[in-house]
Amino acid sequence: MKALVEKAIHDLAPLGAEIFEISIPELVNAETAVLVVSGAEGTSQHHENLLNPTLRHMYQEDVRIQLEAGELVSGVEYVKGQKARRLLRDGFYRAFTKVDVIVAPTVPIPAPHFTPNQTKLNFEVLNACTPFTCPANLTGLPSLSIPVGLTMEGLPVGMQIFGKPFAEGQLLEVGYAYEQISPMKDVVAGDRMLTS
């Protein structure tokens, strides 16, 4: 997986990209911040439904448990989570003074197998993927995930591109440019064709 994403990053160079390695130290607190902040905010949106015995049963058990966990977030924890969110945003803004976009793996593991009747969250997958997907959720920055290849089992591997605030056009241009040279451009996935 890592090799596929690294190759995709290097494939951007002939398209005019200059590749720089950057560091955003504030990412270390992102996962905790998203659990606290998103947990509390998600719970606040569903609070009345969770209290209503008629509506409460409409939530899948695993989703309901996550939402109920949000009830346990204290005001102090929420404020600390918001501070970590601001610091993370500031870290990305600082990085964007040096680069136009930030490219990283979408998730660190291959896409999990999916069954048509799957209704339970896979917490192992969720825990592995959250650190990679939560920065965009926390900061509100635009991001785009595009396939860059397939694992040996035929499961997709993705590359995530983060853009500056309100720079969705530039983000889409980078994604589109990569798609034109992507090895996934004409790959058959299951019984449908992936095309750009």
UniProtKB/TrEMBL annotation:
Protein origin, superkingdom: Bacteria
Organism: Alicyclobacillus fastidiosus
Pfam families: Amidase (PF01425)
InterPro entries hit by this protein: Amidase, Amidase_dom, AS_sf
Assigned protein family: Belongs to the amidase family.
Protein name: Amidase
Domain Amidase per the UniProt entry, residue ranges: 2-172
